[in-house]
């Protein structure tokens, strides 16, 4: 028996309905802020991602050569693809551009709970606005989007400028090495690296920076960095809107990618693999042949959100099983269509069962049975049977539809 590929999943109807519900909530949150959905190809030129992240990322990707000899890859993330699309299609659009996406991505890595080889991301890209207000809007939208899902989370917000200021005297290689240890929260590795590079004088301020819980404390540690006014205004805007976040200037993600503000979200019930959100300001378009436009965005790990939320009861929508005699099949199709046009799910027999077998099956899958015997067909009525209470009554089709609709979603 063939099995699904490792790191992928099958989703049965109940789970798909839960996923679509949360997906709709996220899309609606972005819509309210003026972000419109875009879609990019599932596969892109390999260079799109190596140009941004280097050749080392290839081992984590699904890379293949097409029949024309072109090196392609299934997308490992969506931001680069969206910025490629901006360069190809969107440079003349009025700015700022507010785009969002919901897409599956692919990475060749060891599967584990909440981490798969095919996974889904919801994300936002704000292109062409380089202001504290733009930074604050994206953070507030991220907060709004996560709250719409019902997940419980902690939001951390920081800025790379103070840390870069502390490391400004180092060559780029040493900066990257130290930032990598900070990003991995590896104090032992960081201490060893600082000793090896004779940079132990940085240990205390780097540790203190990660402990700062107010913006003013940050500048006491890092000094008066050039971006101070922008940082203060961004955090002031967040505070004015009562956003529940923790200042975290120890965030060290993406030194070569992010240019300033960074933020992360952590689910409170996922243990070690609990990051569900990451974002910040960046500049990518110029790498793909476009202008050096400021951008800000985030991506939410949809699968981890769903793991965090767990199973929940879906609102039940009534189902009608249309039961008929052989001579009533044409009328049964008309009745089923009338229920469906009223927005009610209706299922007709496809197995050629007798009336008794049809009712027995409907009792397993439906809430009501619309019975069409010879009398109902001739009179243009239906006998509507409540399969939970057993009550039944012959009604006009319009009254039967109204009765089922009265029960609605519950």
From TrEMBL:
Reaction(s) catalysed by this chain's protein: tRNA(His) + L-histidine + ATP = L-histidyl-tRNA(His) + AMP + diphosphate + H(+)
Record's keyword annotation contains Nucleotide-binding: yes
PROSITE patterns found in the cross-reference section: AA_TRNA_LIGASE_II
EC number: 6.1.1.21
Localization: Cytoplasm
Main location: cytoplasm
Top-level enzyme category: ligase
Alphabetic keyword roster: Aminoacyl-tRNA synthetase, ATP-binding, Cytoplasm, Ligase, Nucleotide-binding, Protein biosynthesis
Domain Aminoacyl-transfer RNA synthetases class-II family profile: 6-318
MF-aspect GO terms: ligase activity
One Pfam assignment: tRNA-synt_His
HAMAP family (UniProt xref): His_tRNA_synth
Family, similarity comment: Belongs to the class-II aminoacyl-tRNA synthetase family.
Name used for this protein in its record: Histidine--tRNA ligase
């Amino acid at each position: 028996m063939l099995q699904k590929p490792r790191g992928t999943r099958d989703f049965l109807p109940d789970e798909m309905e839960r996923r679509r519900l949360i997906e709709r909530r996220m899309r609606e949150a972005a819509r309210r802020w003026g972000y419109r959905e875009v879609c990019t190809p599932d596969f892109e030129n390999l260079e799109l991602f190596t140009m941004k992240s280097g050749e080392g990322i290839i081992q984590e990707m699904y890379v293949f050569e097409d029949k024309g000899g072109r090196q392609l890859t299934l997308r490992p993330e969506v931001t680069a693809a969206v910025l490629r699309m901006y360069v190809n299609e969107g440079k003349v659009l009025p700015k700022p551009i507010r785009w969002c996406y919901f897409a599956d991505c692919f990475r060749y890595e060891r599967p584990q709970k909440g981490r798969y080889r095919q996974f889904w991301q919801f994300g936002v890209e704000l292109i062409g606005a380089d202001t504290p207000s733009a930074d604050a809007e994206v953070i507030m939208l991220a907060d709004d989007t996560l709250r719409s899902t019902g997940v419980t989370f902690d939001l951390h917000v920081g800025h790379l400028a103070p840390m870069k200021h502390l490391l400004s005297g180092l060559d780029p290689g040493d900066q990257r090495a130290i930032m990598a240890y900070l990003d991995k929260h590896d104090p032992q590795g960081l201490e060893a690296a600082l000793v090896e590079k004779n940079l132990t004088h940085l240990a205390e301020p780097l540790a203190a920076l990660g402990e700062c819980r107010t913006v003013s404390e940050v500048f006491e540690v890092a000094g008066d960095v050039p971006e101070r006014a922008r940082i203060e205004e961004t955090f002031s805007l967040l505070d004015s809107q009562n956003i529940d976040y923790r200042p975290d200037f120890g965030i060290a993600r993406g030194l070569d990618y992010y240019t300033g503000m960074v933020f992360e979200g952590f689910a409170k019930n996922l243990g070690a693999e609990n990051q569900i959100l990451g974002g910040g300001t960046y500049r990518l378009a110029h790498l793909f042949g476009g202008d050096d436009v400021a951008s800000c965005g985030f991506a939410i790990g949809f699968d981890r959100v769903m793991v965090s939320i767990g199973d929940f009861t879906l609102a039940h929508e009534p189902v009608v099983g249309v039961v008929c005699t052989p001579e009533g099949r044409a009328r049964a199709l008309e009745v089923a269509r009338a229920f469906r046009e009223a927005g009610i799910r209706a299922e007709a027999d496809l197995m050629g069962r007798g009336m008794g077998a049809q009712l027995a099956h409907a009792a397993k899958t439906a809430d009501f049975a619309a019975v069409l015997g010879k009398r109902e067909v001739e009179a243009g009525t239906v006998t509507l049977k409540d399969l939970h209470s057993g009550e039944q009554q012959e009604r006009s089709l319009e009254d039967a539809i109204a009765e089922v609709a009265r029960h609605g979603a519950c």
